[in-house]
Each structure stands twice: as C-alpha cells, then as structure tokens.
Design brief:
The complex is a heterodimer of chains A (219) and B (269). Chain A has nine helices and no strands. Chain A has 219 residues and is mostly helical. Chain A starts with a helix and ends in a 5-residue tail after the last helix. The chains are: A mainly alpha (219), B alpha/beta (269).
C-alpha cells in the first residue's frame, strides 16, 4: 500500500511547496513596496501621498474581505489571461498571489509602523534621504516582524493551496479530496493531513528561527 | 555660526485642536565654538526650537542662518546635504537595534556614501574618544543607558559636523551617568571646538556645560545671558522658578540632576 501511496504523496507535496513558494515570492515582490508605501504615505510622513492611501487602502481591504475560494473562482478569467488556463498547479499560483499581496502589504505596513518614529527623525537628522530611511532604517529594524509575517503568510497559503485543490490545482488538498474523500481512502486522508502538519511545522520553525536570528532587541 | 531671526512656528488647527504657536518670534545668535543652553519647562517650545535649526521642523516664518546659509530656503534635494554638517543627540538615544555599536556610529557616513576605508578611518578613533573600544561589536540591547548615549554622541560626531545639537541628552540617565556624559560633551567641545546647542529642563546641566543660556517660556525667550550672570541674578520669574527647583532638589538631599523616570521633558511640540 505504502509503495503505491508514496509517489503520489511526494508528488502532491512537491506541488504544494511549488505553489506556495512561487506565489509567496511573487506576492512579496508586489506586497513589500505596497506595504512600505502604505506605512509611509500618511499625513506628515516620509512619502506623504494621501491619494495613495485613499486608493490602495480600500483595494487592499476589499481583496482581503473576499473569502479565498470565492476569489479563486471570481478571477478565473484573469487567471486564464495570465497563464492561458485556469486548471492546474501553475494556474493556482495566480489566485494565491492575488490573495497574498494585500495580506503581505498589511503585514509589512504593520511591521514598519512598529519602528520607533524617533529612529526616522534621527535618520533624517543625519541627512538620510527618504529612500535611505526605508532601506537603512525601516526595513532592517522591521525585519523580525516582516519575517514573522511572511511565515504567517506561507502557512496561510498552504491552507489556501489545499482549497485551490478543489478547483483542480493539484497539491495535497487535491490529493486529499480526490483520493481521501471521493474514493473513501481514509489512509490517504490521514497521510495528507499528517504531511500538511509536518510541512506547516517545518515552515513555522524555520520562520521562527530566522526571525530570532534577525532580532537583536533582546540579547 | 547660527542665527535665528524672528522664527515662528505655528502648528495648524486639526481635529478639534486649536492652532498652536510653539515659537513666537525667536531671535538667537550662537557663536562658533560656544555651548549655548536652551532651558524651559515642557511645552515651552525648546524642542521645536532645536528642530528648526536642522529643519526637522520647518519654521512658519523667520530665517535660520547656519554657517552663512539661510537653511529655510534649501530645496528638498539639498536639505540632507546640509544636515550632514550637523550632528544631533537625542534623549532616547534613537539607536538602531539591528546594528552593532560600530555600525550605528558608521550610519551617517554610510548615508553619505563613504567607502569602507573612510568609515573605518572616522569611526575607529571615535570609539576610544567615547570610551567604547571594548563594545565595538555589541548591539544596543547589550548596553547601559550611559553607553547607549555615548554611541549616540559618537554617531553624531562621525560625519565631522560643525554643530552638535543636544536634545535632553541626559534626561533619561541617572545622576552619575549624567555627570559622565556632561564631562564627555565638555571634553569634546574643548578638543574639537564644536558649536553646541543644548536643550534641557535642568539648570544643573546648564551650569555644568554651557557658556550662555536662553530661558524659554510660552514660545519666546524670556531671558538670555552668560551662565554665571543668570545664576547670580535671575531676572525673569521662569528663570527664578527653574533655579528654585534646583535648590529644592539639593535641599531634599537628592541630586540636582535626578530624573530617574526621565520622560516628563521632551514631550512638547
């Protein structure tokens, strides 16, 4: 039994890791600058731009209000436009990324707002330009919080990736539904659940480790 | 070196708060190489005043001339370049927790685009000057308050500024550490001939460190002069009451610099 289950379990685990890693990477690329700007464009702040807050604040909130499974279905036309199909592992990356961008943006915004405003003042007094305040002060000081947030995002995406399994995306969720549920294979279901638990544990421990290493506030 | 002429700062009314005149026409001349104290109670406007010198706060009107340049006319591009000529030390140190002592001191030079060799040449002599040779690779979380402030001072000096702005630099420190920091600042003034502007609410700091003092109340300078003259013959009621605080502190048997909580001042503006 195990010899037949192992290859598909391995394949599904790989698909989940692939979907989560790629969407996390792309979403961070967009979410990081968005979060930085959300945290620094308020009144009297580094890059004061109230129009930016007024436009992107509601968009971020709206995206986050939509349940993921609805979002994944609702943006199928967009997914088809980007990857040419709406079925499969690569297609699942699109809704995962779209859902993760506002999530990451809010997390980065929060982590940056935690940085003591005295540090911004000190950097400006030293002659830091606004971009330097971000790169030399805000991001390094917010790094532990950012790592924690990205770990949380990764774990959330693992959960979401199981949902896109329901719309034909592959991965552990897909395996659990098709084999475990629809073919009445409790052994497969158990294997999927255990694998998910292990993957989440590993991701969380690794994220905690990195955040601890980056945090020099309590030595 | 620094000349403030009729400097006013008004914070506009917002969210039910009335407009607030933090500075109502400040005139102050600071000569090169002297240490000038600005003393006043919380809300007197002294923190706003010092931030108008390096334009962390833009004056509503009036002019601020530093080393021959009216800094209120500087463009956004030129402002950072000007600020590199001024060092600033803060009440709560404002060190980067993610950087070592060495890297904190190096930050102003890094921002100015200095090479690694230039940074080492500037930072290495500063460590013994502030007595932190053995803390070079430590993080701020591993230092005491006095050590953190020494890092703050070294950081302010690393870009070889002409002026050092000190904003309540001893208010978060205990009396003994306060004495050490004041001695260090005096020593730096003697050795490097820096011009210093020292904001404080404690007359003892003025007495230990300053050549001249300006007393502020309600956004104006109410009395100004040599430290000895002011201490011998305080004219204005505010000056007299600030001096009386010192006297009471001594009589109560505690130290004049005693301000363990250290958070009553520096909240204004």
């Amino acid at each position: 039994m195990f010899s037949t289950l192992a290859p598909i379990l391995l394949q599904a685990t790989w698909e989940t890791i692939y979907m989560v890693a790629v969407s996390l990477g792309i979403a961070t690329t967009f979410g990081l600058p968005l979060g930085v700007l959300l945290a620094t464009s308020g009144r009297g702040e580094l890059f004061e731009a109230l129009w930016f807050q007024r436009i992107f604040g509601p968009i971020v909130n709206a995206t986050r209000s939509v349940p993921f499974i609805i979002l994944a279905v609702a943006i199928i036309p967009f997914t088809r436009f980007v990857v040419g199909t709406s079925i499969g592992t690569s297609a699942a990356i699109v809704p995962l990324t779209v859902a993760a961008i506002p999530f990451i943006a809010r997390i980065i915004e929060g982590a940056i707002r935690e940085v003591d405003s005295g540090l911004i003042e000190a950097a400006q007094a030293m002659g830091a330009r606004p971009v330097q305040v971000v790169t030399k002060v805000l991001l390094p000081e917010a790094l532990p919080g950012i790592i924690h947030g990205l770990t949380l995002t990764a774990v959330t995406l693992i959960g979401y990736s199981a949902m896109v399994g329901a719309v034909g995306a592959g991965g552990l969720g897909d395996l659990g539904i098709r084999y475990g549920y629809q073919r009445f294979r409790p052994d497969v279901m158990a294997a999927v659940v255990i694998t998910l638990i292990v993957v989440v544990q590993v991701v969380q421990s690794f994220g905690d480790y990195l955040a601890r290493k980056a945090d020099k506030r309590n030595i | 070196m620094i000349r403030l002429s009729n400097v006013q700062k008004t914070y506009p009314a917002r969210r039910g708060n009335d407009a607030h005149n933090a500075l109502r026409g400040i005139n102050l001349d600071i000569e090169a190489g002297e240490i000038v104290g600005v003393i006043g109670r919380s809300g007197a406007g002294k923190s706003t005043l010092i931030r108008c010198i390096n334009l962390l706060e833009a004056p509503t009107s009036g002019s601020v001339v530093v080393d021959g340049t009216d800094v209120t006319t500087l463009s956004k591009r030129d402002l950072p370049l000007f600020r590199r000529q001024l060092g600033m030390v803060f009440q709560h140190f404002n060190l980067l927790s993610s950087r070592t002592v060495y890297d904190n001191i190096a930050l102003p030079l890094e921002l100015a685009g200095a090479s690694k060799a230039e940074i080492a040449a500037a930072v290495d002599p500063l460590l013994p000057l502030v007595g932190l040779e053995d803390k070079r690779d430590r993080f701020p979380a591993e230092l005491s308050g006095g050590q953190k402030q020494r890092v703050g001072i070294a950081r302010a000096l690393s870009s070889s500024p002409k002026v050092l702005l000190c904003d309540e630099v001893t208010s978060a420190l205990d009396p003994e550490t306060t004495r050490q920091i004041l001695t260090l600042l005096k020593d730096i003034n003697n050795r490097l001939g820096l011009t210093m502007v020292v904001i404080t609410h404690e007359m003892a700091v003025v007495k230990a460190l300053c050549d001249r003092v300006a007393v502020m109340d309600g956004g104006v300078i109410v009395e100004e002069g040599g430290v000895e003259g002011i201490f011998a013959d305080p004219k204005h009621a505010t000056t007299q009451s600030l001096l009386a605080d010192e006297f009471m502190d001594f009589r109560a048997g505690s130290d004049a610099n005693n301000n363990v909580t250290g958070n009553t001042a520096g909240q204004e503006g």
